Amino acid sequence: MTPTRAPRYARHRFPAEVISYAVWLYFRFPLSLRMVEEMLAARGIEVSYETVRQWALKFGQGFANQIRRRLPATGDKWHLDEVVITIAGRKHWLWRAVDQHGLVLDILVQSRRNAKAAKRLLRKLLKKQGMAPRVMITDKLASYGAAKREVMPGVEHRQHNGLNNRAENSHQPTRRRERIMKRFKSAGQAQRFLSVHDQVANLFRRPSHFNAADHRCARARAFQIWAEVTGIASAA
Question: What is the pLDDT of residue 235?
Fold first, then answer.
């Protein structure tokens, strides 16, 4: 196979296939940079973990932005939730929104858990999605109600802890990555990493109602989109 040399990979020693594969491994699975380095070494590719880090920083967000544009339209029911994460010994809050199908709409790392922080999340969601939801579902944190009344006054708001399991469950992959990475080093690092991680997870997500044949078709489609996003398909 002739290595791919798409324009975005110009001046890189390794071809697109290697770079995109390393980035995929890092964001798709709960692997540390050193684990990715070792997996590449097992395939005869000698790359340092620091090079993998630089590839993730350079290409990750661009890949995530393209994935977002290629995914199906999001649902009209938003589930919002927030979870505490410790960064450099200080509490921060990871705010996340998912739709009724489990797709992550957006995340926002903030140092506060109040109405101002909730408004920032809602405004960011409206800007990204281009439209308000039909229904917004949250836990009983009063900040959500105050933010909704100001930012999305016409949207139905349901507050009930039992209704918001979808958003709460979406935090589990973040917890796994947090343990692998031995906690995030800064709020900026957490925001950058999770903005990419969640979109890659969206692309390769397996809905629970799929049977084996449907899953294989969906996975093949996801790999095709990944090839297009990373430039391998067009440059091959």
Answer: 52
Give the pairing of strands 104-110 and 77-87.
Answer: unpaired
- Confidence (pTM): 0.87
DSSP-derived letter for residue 74 is P
Q: In angstroms, how far is the first alpha carbon of the chain from the final one?
A: 9
Q: Which two tokens stand for residue 99?
A: 């739709």
Go through 109-129 and write b for each residue having 16 or more CB atoms within 10 A of its CB, e for each that does not.
bbeebebebbbbbbebbeeeb
Instruction: Please check whether residues 170 and 211 belong to one and the same domain.
Output: no
Q: What is the CATH number of the domain that holds 139?
A: 3.30.420.10
Packing angle between helix 187-203 and helix 49-70, nearest 10 degrees? 60
Is residue 1 over pLDDT 90?
no
Phi, psi of 82 (to 5 degrees): -135, 145
155-159-165-167 Cα dihedral, nearest 10 degrees: 50
Residue 195 placed within a domain: no
Dist CA 194 CA 210 (whole Å): 26
3-state SS, residue 177:
helix
Range of the domain at 129: 77-186
Q: Assign residue 44 a region (left: φ > 0; alpha: ψ between -120 and 50; beta: otherwise).
A: left
The amino acid that residue 164 corresponds to is N
DSSP letter at 83?
Answer: E
